[in-house]
Design goal:
Elements lengths: L3 H37 L3 H6 L2 E4 L13 H6 L5 E3 L4 H14 L7 E4 L12 H6 L3 H17 L4 E2 L23 H16 L12 E5 L18 H8 L1 H8 L4 E4 L3 E2 L2 E2 L4 H11 L5 E3 L7 H5 L4 H11 L4 E2 L3 H11 L5 H17 L12 H7 L3 H14 L1 E5 L11 E5 L25 H9 L4 E5 L8 H6 L14 H12 L4 E7 L18 H12 L4 E6 L7 H6 L2 E4 L7 H9 L66 E3 L3 E2 L3 E2 L5 E9 L5 E11 L10 E10 L4 E8 L6 E2 L5 E2 L3 E8 L5 E8 L1
Parallel strand pairs: 1-2, 1-10, 2-3, 3-4, 5-6, 6-9, 12-13, 12-14, 14-15, 15-16, 19-27
Antiparallel strand pairs: 7-8, 11-16, 17-20, 18-20, 20-23, 21-22, 21-26, 24-25, 26-27
Helix pairs in contact: 1-14, 6-7, 6-15, 6-16, 7-9, 12-13, 16-22, 17-22, 19-20
The structure holds 1-deoxynojirimycin (NOJ).
The site of 1-deoxynojirimycin has 8 residues, from loops.
């Protein structure tokens, strides 16, 4: 029974919804009228011009340099500009468009603002390790505030491609292997970028990418083919894109890859049937960089043919390839595309500009004063430090090596010790690399004179100079030491000899992951491993501070190094955040969003695999004629969801409110979690389910909920998850989204492996 006040509140809320709906209907009507009137005055060339996204006369994230940008703007041949780097240039370009083109249509300005604009946050895989949706949303909000002040209004983010292949360099840019976690992060990022009002001066339009299945490229090789069953697509790979769209993402970017024989950028089924018709997407679709032109190499025809194909399939804007600009008119004349196809695309691009408020004030996003106020301000830097600390994952801490005491001498050894440019991580095109503190600088800054820090680079990043060059592009240079390896190590050991504790800063450079940075060997480079072995031989405590953009194979390190802290690439404040965690001011709480394999040969390795008809018996790692390998067990080195803390958490017994879930009912799954150690800490309590018998095979575990707790020493808290029929649904063989009756297992625990299990039945 509801009280009077509750009823009044409900009524007000309902009225609010009605009012909002009425408002958005009115907004849509106004937008329709405005855009229709504008389009009635546009020539076909001007309409095609709106579909053209060009570079700003410099190659930034690819090799294309667009030509004649100025005259094209005046002729109305440009709809958007990509990666323009200063507010002055953005203002000048916008002035040309709104003062010197016939119809004065403003330009949309996009950039890859992926994990921060100037204040850099951890790489997306690192942010995902925080399992903290509020934090992730805030990082996107800050990125939008900073980028929009510099005149940008569109970001090519979030990247929501599920990836289960650590060889693929771009696993660093997404949220890892899991559908559920990836979907929640996709929503949080869209909310962060777009805020409540896309037309506000401090928001960016989001662009969810890469539609679709880019993370499933064969063999982890970038841009490679994807071939996948519909069943897997709908259940495992498509949900994060849909979540971003349901959260209101204004645009979608196509993927480079082929999908079951039709490249994504020409895939009508994907862009029209799924995206528009099944999901009701109303924004616009932009291709990835030259993805239309690449359809020629995919083997679909010449530039005119592939441009027509991609427009008709559902693309609205052509990123930097100018296939649309140069061929669509001819295709219209020859009947290969219709005026309606061009109108559809033009309308959706103009609508995006309308939603951004650009027709009202084309300069609303450029504000020098606001830029001075927000960019890299103290609040943003503090958030970057917090976010970095929360992204770190403690993989091992034998004998409580960590946290360290703030005393004595610490030796910081390794090629990642003193390279500020590598701290922001991959896809940080807007970062000020030269002014980003290195690990050494950040740690010194954080620790002052409480601890003496001595340091040495210890080794090259990679033994092979040509490989190192490929791995340190875009200003991420790490100087090489051409002396014999033994000489360099000897010098490093002399430095280490002065210290009480050795911190080995090893792993990947930032460009060893990211686009076009796939690896077949996903271990720490051998030359660094040899350094590590020598450091261990000193007998001093060694902490491995691991830099990486992907899961690495750390079997040897796990066996020999007492403490391993995975710091990914933490952004601007990496160094301070590492000091915070190593010295115990911050208790690590990150949990892996992707499985770390024992061996690269196990890849793709992910927790939510199918059971197969020949699973191993419990406790066995090899059985003849069972699904396994002769040389390595099926187990990961570190499972999905794994991460240690300086404190310990004890889980009480898992309880279910009922073992029979009714279709319209609710099942409460509860557990008490207690902090049984000496430090305050955070724990991510994870809930998984398994459908034990169904019309199609189902994964052995699927994440369906998580809760992040903050507990003081001795404190305990009950966590309750509500499960409903909705959580048990999946796409069956007919692609109907259903929950089938029968028995389910529910698991709760600290990672995907270490869980308690209970059973229930869905009626
Ligand atoms: C290619 C990448 O795949 C995409 O993620 C990025 O947004 C564009 N280049 C633009 O830089």
């Amino acid at each position: 029974m509801k009280t009077h006040t509750q009823l009044v509140i409900l009524a007000c809320l309902a009225l609010g919804i009605v009012k909002n709906e009425a408002f958005s209907q009115q907004h849509n009507n106004d937008m329709d009228r405005f855009v229709s009137e504008l389009m009635s005055r546009m020539t076909i060339d001007e309409k095609i011009g709106q579909l053209n996204l060009v570079t700003a006369g410099e190659a930034v994230t690819g090799s294309v340099v667009s030509t004649d940008v100025e005259s094209k703007i005046k002729e109305g041949k440009i709809g958007g500009i990509f990666s323009m780097s200063t507010p002055q240039r953005i203002r000048a370009a916008q002035e040309l468009a709104v003062n010197h083109s016939r119809l004065k249509i403003p330009i949309i300005f996009g950039m890859d603002v992926i994990h921060g604009y100037k204040t850099m946050f951890p790489i997306p895989l690192g942010l995902a390790a925080s399992w903290d949706m509020e934090l992730i949303q805030e990082t996107a909000r800050i990125a939008a505030m900073e980028a929009s002040a510099d005149g940008l209004n569109w970001t090519f983010s979030p990247m929501v491609d599920i990836s289960r292949d650590a060889r693929w360099g771009r696993i660093s840019e997404g949220s890892g292997e899991d559908t559920y976690l990836g979907s929640r992060i996709a929503e949080a990022m869209v909310r962060g970028y777009q805020g409540d009002d896309l037309a506000a001066h401090n928001t960016l339009m989001a662009c969810v990418k890469h539609f679709a299945l880019y993370g499933a490229a064969e063999a982890g090789r970038d841009y490679n083919t994807t071939d996948m069953s519909l069943h897997r697509m709908y259940n495992e790979y498509l949900p994060p894109y849909k979540a971003a769209i349901d959260a209101g993402a204004g645009s979608v970017m196509t993927a480079f890859n082929d999908i079951n024989g039709v490249p994504a950028t020409a895939n009508k089924w994907l862009m029209t049937d799924v995206l528009r018709n099944q999901w009701g997407f109303t924004g616009f679709v932009v291709t990835d960089y030259t993805a239309v032109n690449e359809l020629i190499d995919h083997g679909l025809g010449d530039l005119q043919e592939v441009s027509a194909l991609s427009l008709k399939a559902g693309v609205e804007m052509d990123m930097v390839g100018e296939g649309f600009l140069t061929t669509l008119k001819k295709s219209l004349d020859e009947g290969k595309v219709s005026a309606a196809d061009i109108d559809r695309a033009c309308r959706l691009v103009l609508e995006a500009k309308y939603k951004l408020g650009l027709f009202e004030d084309p300069f609303r996003y450029i504000d020098d004063n606001r830029a001075k106020e927000v960019i890299l301000n103290a609040e943003h830097l503090a958030k970057a430090r917090t976010a970095a600390g929360k992204s770190f994952v403690l993989l091992k801490n034998e004998g409580h090596v960590l946290p360290l005491k703030k005393q004595g001498t610490v030796a910081l050894i390794g090629p990642l010790t003193n390279t500020g440019a590598n701290m922001p991580g991959t896809w940080s095109v807007s970062a000020d690399l030269e002014n980003t503190p290195s690990l050494l600088e950040g740690m010194c800054d954080a620790l002052g004179n409480q601890v003496k820090i001595v340091h040495h680079h210890g080794s090259n990043l990679l033994e092979d100079a040509a490989y190192q060059e490929r791995a340190t592009m875009f200003g991420r240079t790490i100087p090489r030491d051409e002396r014999p390896e033994q000489e360099v190590i000897a010098e490093a050991l002399a430095v280490a000899g002065q210290a009480d504790v050795i911190i080995a800063a090893l792993g990947e450079s930032s460009e060893m992951s990211g686009e076009s940075s796939s690896r077949t060997d996903i271990s720490i480079p051998a030359v660094q491993q040899r350094l590590l072995a020598k450091l261990l031989e000193t007998g001093k405590p060694v902490v491995l501070v691991l830099f990486t953009g992907r899961p690495l194979t750390l079997t040897w390190e796990n066996e020999h190094v007492p403490a391993i802290l995975n710091v990914w690439f933490g952004g601007t404040e990496t160094g301070k955040a590492v000091a915070d965690v190593l010295f115990g001011d911050v208790n690590p709480s990150g949990k892996l969003p992707a499985t770390f394999p024992q061996h690269v040969g196990q890849v793709p390795l992910y927790y939510s695999h199918k059971n197969t008809g020949r699973p191993l018996a419990d406790g066995q790692w090899f059985q003849k004629f069972r699904s396994n390998y002769l040389d390595v067990s099926n187990d990961p080195l570190y499972p999905f969801g794994y991460g240690l803390s300086y404190t310990t958490f004890a889980y009480g017994e898992l309880t279910l409110s009922t073992t029979e879930l009714q279709r319209d009912g609710k099942l409460q799954v509860s557990v008490d979690v207690a902090n049984t150690g000496d430090y305050a800490g955070e724990e991510v309590v994870q809930l998984y389910i398994r459908d034990l018998a169904g019309s199609v095979t189902r994964p052995v575990k699927e994440l369906k909920g998580f809760r992040k707790l903050h507990l003081a020493p001795g404190q305990s808290q009950q966590v309750t998850f509500d499960l409903t029929e909705e959580d048990l649904k999946f796409y069956n063989a007919e692609l109907e989204y259903v929950a089938e009756p029968g028995e389910f297992a529910v698991f709760v625990g600290t990672n995907a492996r270490d869980v308690q299990e209970k059973r229930f039945t869905l009626q």
